[in-house]
Amino acid sequence: MKRLSIKFKVTFWFTLMMVITVAAALAFLIVIGEQTVSEATCLRLNEAVEDSFSEIKYRFGELDIDNDLDYYNDGVYIAVYSVEGELLYGRLPADFDRSTEFVTGEIRKLEGAKQTQYVYDAVHDAGKGYIVIVRGVMPASGSENAFEEIIRLAMIMFPALVIIAALIGYFIAKRAFKPVERIVDSAATINGGNDLSKRIGMSDGKDEIHRLAAEFDKMFDRLEASFENEKRFTSDASHELRTPIAVIISQCEAILENEELDDETRNAICSVLSNAEGMAELISSLLTLARADRGHLKLIPEELDLAEAVFAVGELTSELAKEKNIKVEVSCGDSVIINGDRAMITRMLLNICENAVKYGKENGNINIDLKEENANAVVLISDDGNGIAKESLERIWERFYREDEARGNGTGLGLPLAKYIANAHGGDITVKSEKGVGSLFEIIIPKKL
Ligand code: ADP
Q1: Which residues of the chain have pLDDT under 70?
Q2: Which residue has the least CA distance to atom 8 on ligand 1?
Q3: Cβ(383) to ligand 1 under 6 A?
């Protein structure tokens, strides 16, 4: 039940209540109706039989029946029998079973083949000890038959009524929940598309659902504004930090040119320079991502030979890898043309290759392969270094996530930026890795058609 939509739940309860109400009303009607009808019938039969007593007298040695006695009156047939059961006077309905035995003082209901009949046998002392039995027979009245017919009809109509009630209930619930569905759809679009500028935008209604939609829209306004502020702040802060860092780097480089520096000072300045360079890289990545978030990062696409870019990055990687004596093998074959932003594509490749060196093992291997697969260019960058733990595989694409915070001088922005660049070119980056074995990054970029 919990998994059903509210629409179904409302319909279900509505129909159930409807069934219970109608069934209870019907049961009440049957019980009370039947009782009332049969009580009225019994009363009429009883009265007719007992009224007839005054007309049946024993006089002058024989039974004298007054002319006023109607053998058929108001639906009741009257017949007079001797105690031996011989019919002396009177009439009975044609379909009445004449062999029906006598049971005095009690009204019986006999279900005949054609119709139901009520029978009342009464002992009557006609005078001077002459005993007769007066039998009253009353076929079930028209109203009783009609009542039974109505009940039968109701029993047939009942399931039809339930189905109609369920359909109407569902229709009403569906209409009532239409605005809610719109809210759900809009919220899902906003959530799924990460587009905070979208709104539910329902007309100005006063009911709860319209108010809810309006409140949601206000909430989205505030969310959008605060996200916008945050992005602007990151972008402005990175921008402002670029100049002082550039000054620190250039000043450090100038100081290091002085050959009279003692070793201690030189080491200190080198350390400042190295940190400043790391910070410059972080600020640059941050600024690029902040601009991308604000939609201010414009790609400058050109007809680009990816093989050339891969080769150039391979060369750079070989240089970097010398420090750890890592062997870099590049295989990029013929030219593969894509529509890409040269600087961005180079940056993406470099980020992945730098990581392969950074997290590669001493005397290890790095392979950089470029191939074509249908309409895509695929770059595979593999190393036999640290590898990535299973639980970190999803998280390495998050900003500032670093598997081992204590190690290396990373920023945690290299992979998010690389992924952003691949996505912005209509492609993607995925990774396969095993801790202690190595990693394989696969970059897919659509070829220029
Ligand atoms: P960082 O500046 O820390 O390298 P990245 O965004 O480039 O930031 O990478 C995020 C994290 O992913 C790294 O801190 C590292 O733990 C993991 N990682 C990335 N590339 C590799 C790799 N080739 N081998 C092992 N771990 C890697």
Answers
A1: 1-2, 113, 141-146, 193-194, 405-408
A2: 412
A3: yes
Taking the CA atoms of 370, 440, 346 and 360 in sequence, report the sign of the dihedral they define.
negative
Q: Which distant-in-sequence residues (6+ apart) come within 8 Å of 164 by Cβ?
A: none
- State the distance from the centre of ligand 1 to the C-alpha of 319, rounded, in angstroms: 19
Does residue 384 have its Cβ closer than 6 Å to ligand 1? no
Residue the block writes with tokens 């696409």 = 301
Domains by residue range for the chain, with CATH: 7-163 (3.30.450), 187-297 (1.10.287.130), 302-446 (3.30.565.10)
Contact 72, 93 (CB under 8 A): no
pLDDT tens digits, one per residue of 304-347:
999 999 999 999 999 999 999 999 999 988 899 999 999 999 99
User: 104: helix, coil or strand?
Assistant: strand
Taking the C-alpha atoms of residue 76 and residue 118, their distance in angstroms, rounded to an integer, is 9
**pLDDT computed for residue 14 by the predictor:** 85
Q: How far apart are the C-alpha atoms of 97 and 117, rounded to whole Å?
A: 10
Dihedral pair phi/psi, residue 202, rounded to 5°: -90, 155
pLDDT of residue 54: 85
| Rounded CA separation 218/117 (Å) | 77
Query: Across 262-364, where does the E strand assignment appear?
Result: 302-305, 327-331, 337-340
Q: Is the distance from the beta carbon of residue 356 to the nearest atom of ligand 1 less than 6 Å?
A: yes
User: From the CB of 414, is ligand 1 less than 6 Å away?
Assistant: yes
Residue identifier of the C-alpha nearest atom 7 of ligand 1: 414
Testing ligand 1's pocket by substitution, the residue of 351, 354, 396, 429 carrying the most ligand atoms inside 8 A of its CB is: 396
Q: Which of 192, 187, 191 is nearest to 202 (CA)?
A: 187
Question: From the alpha carbon of 416, which atom of ligand 1 is closest?
Answer: 6
- Tell me the C-alpha distance between 349 and 422, whole Å: 10
- The pTM score is 0.59
Cβ of 355 closer than 6 Å to ligand 1, yes or no, is: yes
Q: Which residues is 75 bridged to in the sheet? A: none
Both tokens of 305, joined, read 């030979």
According to the model, what pLDDT value does residue 198 have?
Answer: 82
- Evaluate whether 304 touches 379 at the Cβ level (below 8 Å): no
Residues forming a β-bridge with 117: 110, 139
